[in-house]
Amino acid sequence: MDYVRVGSLAELGNALGRDGATLIAGGTDLMVKMRAGSVRPRLLVDISRVDELREVSMHPSGLTIGSAALVAEVLASPTVSTNYPLLATVLRSLGSTQIRNRATLGGNLANASPAADSPLALLAYDARVTLAGAGTERTLPLHEFFLGPGRTALRRGEYIRSIDLPTPRTDWDVFFHKVGRRRALTIAITSVAGLIALRGRAVVDVRVTAGSVAPTPIRLRAVEDLVRRRELDGEQIAAAHATALREVSPIDDVRATALYRRTVTADLVARFLHEASESTPTSP
Amino acid sequence: MKKRESRAFVVVGKSEAKVDGRGLVTGRPMFVADVDVSDALVIKMLWSPYAHARIASIDTADAERMPGVACVLTHKNTPATRHTTAGQGFPEPSPYDARMFDTKVRFVGDRVAAVAAETEEVAERALAAIRVEYEELPAVLSIDEARRPGAPIVHDESDATGIYDPSKNVVADVDIDVGDVAVGFGESDLIVETTCETQYAQHTPIETHVVLASLDADDRLVLRTSTQVPFHVRRIVAQTLGIPVHRIRVVKPRIGGGFGVKQEVLLEDVAGWVTLQTRRPALFTLSRREEFTSSRTRHPMRVRVKVGVKKTGLVHAIEMEAVSNTGAYGAHGLTVLANTGSKTLPLYNKAENAHFFGQAVYTNLPVGGAYRGYGATQGYFALETAMDEAAERLGLDPIEFRLRNAIRTGEGSPIFAKLGEGREGVSQTVKSCELERCLEVGAERIGWTSARSKKERRGSWVHGVGMSIMMQGSGIPEIDMGAATIKMNEDGSFNLLVGATDLGTGSDTILAQIAAEVLGVPLAKILVTSSDTDVTPFDVGAYASSTTYVSGMAVQRAAEKVREQILGVAAPMLGVSTERLALRSESVIGEAGASVSLSRVCQRAMYETDQFQIAATASCVPSESPPPFLANFARVAVDTDTGVIKVLHYVAVVDCGVAINPRLAEGQVEGAIVNGIGYALSEEMQFSSRGRVRNPTLFDYKIPGALDIPRIDVVLVDSYEPTGPMGAKSVGEIGINGPIPTIANAIYDAVGVRLRQTPFTPERVLEALQRV
User: E strands along B428-505, which residues?
Assistant: First the structure.
């Protein structure tokens, strides 16, 4: 196996043209797979020192996060915690301190785990990803980037250049709940994130996302459509619960059964809406 | 009762720093593989992919021809002696049902062949080149399947011995009676019955099993190994390989945890054989995955408890039935089963009628072994759940119910004599029991009266508090032996040589504290050498909560003998008889302030007059096993939406006699509680329909992390065990029995459902709440 560390986007473009090139940034997913022997790259291209890929900057049209920005760096950005509190909340549950100090946001997306934490916030904020390749660049909504477990829209020779989040509403309330077998360093059994803007009990706008309940992290658009511009009462929340039960498509695995995931995901959606309507967050 | 001897301790009872602590925290090379292993062959094992199969043929020719391969071991070229891998006293109470390599494999992860090669990579390639034809056999993958008439027989070989009924897959059968439970239940006013099941779990020591085999200058086999039982390793390897004990030396350096999984001879036979065949050092290390699939586990059990109670609130009859899954081999099968009864039922000695019976059965699943708690953990789940239920139905506070029924100082239990280490036990009277005080302190710490039955709700979270009590033992009476040798040096220091095995528990430190106390020297003057079969006297090793009580008493006796010798030398120096001398502050103190330093005493004995080595060896074979006692309290929150359990506060109040080193004793309890919380809430080996472990990694098998562990208060109550060294009892295991029943009872207090299957995963909690 060869290893090359690139220092600029130009060098990256060249390296990616080489046969069997695999990108590595933090390596927190890739190294585990390499040790297990499930991935055997011929050439590792290390992008962790490409400054252009590490920017975290706010501009008039929103936030741009370079794909090689460390999760810890994103979390440390005051811009992120002020303007995108759901992203900060979700990233705090990603791995552990050590992993957040190595892992990158782009890496978390490229790994395309249905259980990944960061996509829940990014999907809720309508993030787009910019993919660059040999002289080309394209942008697509994040939900089109994920194709299935471990599968993305990245083509051969392409890399994630950045993640772009539009300027958010200033009146979003946020919700995030992850159920795992323990509280840190754990893969979600199910996780639900939400953004909601209310006028009184009327839902001005809403976003609901869920992890570990479909082949990719998903937006629960049927739930969103159901409650958007409606009064948030018990009946409406019950209807949202029923819709969520139908909208997810989980599987049985070593962590939990599909039945449990479906039930709890719908419960968490209801909890999200209930807490928003009562403005009382739940904690033990 | 006498709480404590009037004498004031100087070194004992102090939280001295661990004698090996400095080296450990500064990263000195102290572990098995910390020595130069560059010339060692690397051993890798080919494991069975089938739960049950005969090896029809095995072809190792290609593997043997590979450059860098030193040898390939199979059933064809290794000794066929049946033995047990369980590192227990001799003769072992476990059946002789294992061979180094067998013609049949009995679980996914059983041994098929081993390769020793120059590098790990070569060894792996050689394993892949071994061609094995298997004839797959039907497998039994649960205790119910194993007991079904006509079930496949796991051990059908003719040369196995010590199996209770191999044709029915029964390794062991226990049935003991006190009084008559049928009559007792008839006379009872209330009957409570509950059945609880526990899961497969692994010890997950931070250091997996590892052994380095080599030959010394005299071609003796030296096994440097991560073990709890160096002397049993020497005996069992000698037996398995057919070589004399005196041709083997076993050295246990520092080790990274054991918890019972290293009370087993798992790798040493193979590494030893490779070294004897090749005359090369050989290193054999289990990977984490292999540790899960191929080492040892906690015996899963189904335990049914039936309790008959009189209106007075007195337990009148108890019946406990346990069915234990010992997996593919019977290691510790009988004794873990017996301990499920013998370590639990004496606690409720008011019951005039008691019946314990059960079986340990073979399945084609990973092998059970010793695991901290050793059956008691499984038994207390059902017993303390039943007691909680009985108290509730009587309208009694569960603490009050325990107080009325639990054993007290000065009392015995007929169970002690009826049931012991897989055979009859030893009668004993409890001489120290501060359970009442434990309950009082614990109830106050947790805020029992204000929190109980409040069902305080915060959104979907509901709070509850629960409690449980338990006992364990201190070693195995009339079986265990520990021995210690102490010799004196001319600067007034002492070498303490013990066979006892420090697993990171701190036993080297507390044994040194006992010696220092007797000899009147600071801890730094005791130089500990432990666990080397060429150097130290015999000790059964670290298991059954034996070290503090058994090995500790051996050290105390050896130190007392040495003290007598010192006084004998000093008496003429001070001109008084020995009875009028005392040992204190590194001196022998005579009358009117006259004293002579220990170094002077030793110089005289070594160089000057009537020269001899001041030294002594002493042994301890205990005639009883005084139980430590524990009262547990927990406050938990149950999320009724998700089924997640959060333990908010845990209080463990312990009577372990005098704590030789309070901080180390607290650490043992704290660690055991953490271990137990993992077993209660998240740890679970899961199996495919063909018997393969589905989660053999720490990625999918979740031990608790720091965020999962609540505030844990460990309180050691004042107590004194008159038969123990310096008043001490042992404390290594008891804590792990607490979390399951305590959390289960707290969940019941919160949401009114009883969980009867561990671990209490979010999914099981929601099922119990009938929400999925």
Answer: 457-458, 461-471, 482-488, 494-498
Do residues A188 and A115 touch, judged by C-beta distance below 8 A? Answer: yes
- Report the number of distinct structural domains present in chain B: 3
Helix H segments across B96-150?
A: 120-128, 143-147
> Where is the domain boundary, B250, B269, B294?
B294
The number of C-alpha atoms within 13 Å of B592 and in the hemisphere containing its C-beta is 3
Query: CA-to-CA distance for B553 and B375, rounded, in angstroms?
Result: 26
Token code pair at residue B167: 């044709």
Q: Which of A183, A259, A271 sits opposite B705 (nearest CB)?
A: A183
CA distance B92 to B83: 9
Cα distance between residue B704 and residue B684, in whole Å: 12
Chain B contacts of A32, Cβ < 8 Å? Answer: 699
The torsion angles phi and psi of A60, rounded to 5 degrees, stand at -55, -30
Contact: B762, A271; criterion CB under 8 Å = no
Q: Indicate yes or no: CB of A264 within 8 angstroms of CB of B766.
A: yes
Note whether B459 contacts A275, CB cutoff 8 Å: yes
Within this chain, do residues B154 and B218 fall inside the same structural domain, yes or no?
no
pLDDT digits 0-9 by tens, A188-214: 999 999 999 999 999 999 999 999 999
Mutation pick from A181, A190, A253, A255 vs chain B, by most beta carbons of B within 10 Å, is A181
CB pairs under 8 A between A and B: 78
Exposure string over B682-713, b if 16+ CB within 10 A, otherwise e: bbbbbbeeebbbebbeeebbbbbeeebbbebb
pLDDT value of position B1: 38
Q: Do A283 and B682 touch (CB under 8 A)?
A: no
Tell me which residue range forms the domain holding A124.
2-166
Number of domains in chain A: 2
CA B489 to chain centre: 35
Find the mean pLDDT for residues A86-102.
Answer: 95
Residues of B in contact with A263 (CB under 8 A): 766, 771-772
Q: What CATH number corresponds to the domain at position A209? A: 3.30.390.50
Instruction: Assess A263–B contact: CB distance below 8 Å, yes or no.
Output: yes
Residues of B in contact with A284 (CB under 8 A): 458, 461, 463, 637, 639, 646, 648
Q: Is the pLDDT score of B771 beyond 80? A: no
Q: Which residue of chain B is at minimal alpha-carbon distance from A192?
A: B642
**Closest by Cα among A169, A178, A29, A25 to A89:** A178
Nearest CA in chain A to B764: A260
Residue A242's closest CA among A263, A219, A221?
A: A263
B187-231 pLDDT, tens digit per residue, is 999 999 999 999 999 999 999 999 999 999 999 999 999 999 999
The mean of the pLDDT values for chain B is 97
User: Minimal CA–CA distance to B319: which of B460, B415, B398?
Assistant: B415
- Residue where one domain finishes, among candidates B573, B592, B620: B620
Q: What's the rounded mean pLDDT across residues B516-532?
A: 98
Query: pLDDT by residue (tens digit) across A16-36?
Result: 988 889 999 999 999 999 988
Interchain CB contact of A68 with B (< 8 Å): no
Give the count of beta carbons closer than 10 Å to the beta carbon of residue B59: 13
What is the pLDDT confidence band of residue B2, given thresholds at 50, 70 and 90? very low
DSSP string, B628-650: PEEEEEEEEEEETTT--EEEEEE
Angle between helix axes B662-681 and B739-751 (nearest 10 degrees) is 60
Is the whole model's pTM more than 0.90, yes or no?
Answer: yes
Query: Does A284 reside within a domain?
Result: no
- Residue where the block lists tokens 């890798």: B44
Q: Does B758 touch chain A (CB under 8 A)?
A: no
Q: Which residue range is the domain that position B378 belongs to? A: 140-201+297-428
Q: How confident is the model at residue B16 (pLDDT cuts 50, 70, 90)?
A: very high
